[in-house]
Write a structure and sequence with these properties.
Layout (H helix, E strand, L loop, with lengths): L1 H14 L4 H15 L6 H10 L6 H14 L2 H13 L5 H17 L2 H18 L4 H13 L8 H10 L3 H30 L10 H26 L5 H18 L5 H34 L2 H12 L3 H16 L4 H19 L3 H16 L6 H10 L3 H24 L2 H9 L1
Helix pairs in contact: 1-2, 2-13, 3-13, 4-7, 4-12, 4-13, 5-6, 5-7, 5-11, 6-7, 6-8, 6-10, 6-11, 7-8, 7-18, 8-18, 8-19, 9-16, 9-17, 10-17, 10-19, 10-20, 11-12, 13-16, 14-16, 15-16, 15-17, 16-17, 17-19, 18-19
Length: about 425
């Protein structure tokens, strides 16, 4: 009964449009007060949230991606990929997906990926006669790869919450991330080939390919440095993000695409997003502290394990709940509210926490392109100056592909676990 009332109170606060950070944080404080529990845990949790070396990667990756966004590297990346695959059937769609996957290996952010590649790809694909909803939907979905292909900000936060290895989570995200990019690419090529109506590109010559690739080479090398330093054990994710930020500054200044005004804008944008994320994390920490003292996670875990004796049924129920919540909560809030509640059940069900993290992020990806609060839908709406209905129309097939991937992950868990086990 207590769990139901707490959930109801949280839903009411969210329906009243109370910001998520303040909704969960204030509810946690009220719960502590009603039980007469010591409030000393609140400042301890708040300080513990901010005093985390692992979370330092979040603002640094955000700062780096904002610098790259304002430095216009997305244009170079897209042009280089386009020179190699643009002559394929639906070649610009293929170039869009590949560019999103490559930029995802730098930014760790779905919003940054969608905005950076969308700024370049939407005008070019529209000018070539590609169906506009298809273009918008592909960019919205392609942007979601930014939180699955490492480095990934949600996977960093999941690792901090669960105390799982962040590099291991990054490795686990590689297979599903590349798989999703692959099926997006195949869908884009088939859609364009069967639908027609677009103007194909001529095959680029070797001189054009070489020139475009050289221009994009610093960005690609940046991705190699970031990921390579983490997997080689040379740097932690936070240290790698710091090095990436410095290199991003050097690249954009050397190419004369960065000014002090643009740097100020990038810093301000990263700061705003960081404050929002850390406020939500702090509020969620207080809330999780309160519900733990109320024994809510343990109670829910016991109910779930008693109700769903089979792990498959358990994951089906969890997936349904997460999809439902995804219609109303943005991705980070889903992660911070639901993981502490569901995590105690994983051991009883014999479910790998690393695998569950990837499964959770795939469902978060789906939430990013489903209305009414799919963040990538609104990013692409703004970038493409489109109606939200157009973006939703183009995005729903990609949402279905993501759901199918989540199902596949259950039946083929090695898709996520092969690389962590191998390394």
């Amino acid at each position: 009964m207590e769990a139901f009332l707490i959930l109801l109170a949280l839903v009411v606060l969210l329906v009243l449009r109370v910001p998520v950070a303040f909704a969960v944080g204030s509810l946690g404080i009220v719960l502590l007060f009603l039980k007469g529990l010591p409030m000393i845990g609140v400042p301890q949790r708040l300080y513990g949230t901010m005093d985390s070396f692992e979370l330092l990667a979040v603002p640094l990756f955000l700062l780096m991606s904002n610098v790259l966004l304002r430095g216009g590297v997305g244009k170079d990346l897209f042009a280089a990929v386009q020179s190699w695959v643009g002559h394929w059937p639906g070649g610009l769609g293929a170039a869009t997906v590949i560019s999103c996957a490559l930029f995802s290996a730098i930014s760790g952010s779905s919003v940054a990926t969608a905005a950076t590649i969308g700024t370049v790809a939407i005008p070019e694909m529209t000018r070539r006669g590609y169906d506009r909803p298809f273009v918008l939907g592909m960019l919205a979905a392609g942007g979601t790869l930014g939180i699955l292909i490492p480095p990934s900000i949600p996977l960093i936060i999941y690792g901090v919450i669960t105390e799982e290895s962040i590099p291991t989570l990054f490795l686990a995200g590689v297979g599903p991330g590349l798989f999703l990019a692959g099926i997006f690419l195949v869908y884009g090529v088939l859609y364009a080939k069967l639908g027609g109506g677009y103007t194909p590109l001529e095959k680029a010559g070797w001189a054009e390919r070489r020139a475009a690739s050289l221009l994009a080479l610093p960005t690609i090398l940046l991705a190699v440095v970031i990921i390579g330093s983490i997997y080689a054990g040379i740097a932690t994710p936070s240290e790698s993000a710091g090095v990436g930020f410095v290199l991003a500054l050097l690249i954009t200044f050397a190419m004369r695409r960065m000014t002090w005004e643009k740097l100020r804008e990038a810093t301000y944008s990263a700061m705003r997003t960081t404050v929002m994320i850390f406020l939500i994390i702090a509020g969620a920490k207080v809330f999780s502290y309160a519900i733990t003292l109320y024994l809510i996670p343990q109670t829910i875990s016991q109910v779930l394990t008693n109700t769903f004796a089979d792990a498959g049924l358990f994951m089906l129920a969890v997936g349904g709940v997460l999809l439902l919540i995804g219609f109303f909560l943005e991705a980070l809030s889903m992660l911070l509210i639901m993981v502490p509640v569901l995590f105690p059940s994983l051991e009883a069900m014999g479910i790998s926490p690393i695998w569950f993290g990837i499964f959770f992020v795939v469902l978060i990806e789906t939430a990013l392109i489903t209305p009414p609060v799919g963040l990538n839908l609104f990013v692409i709406q703004a970038v493409g100056r489109a109606r939200i209905e157009e973006v939703v129309k183009g995005a729903w097939p990609f949402a279905v592909m993501m759901l199918c991937t989540a199902v596949l992950l259950w039946f083929w868990q090695d898709l996520a676990l092969f690389l962590p086990f191998y390394f």
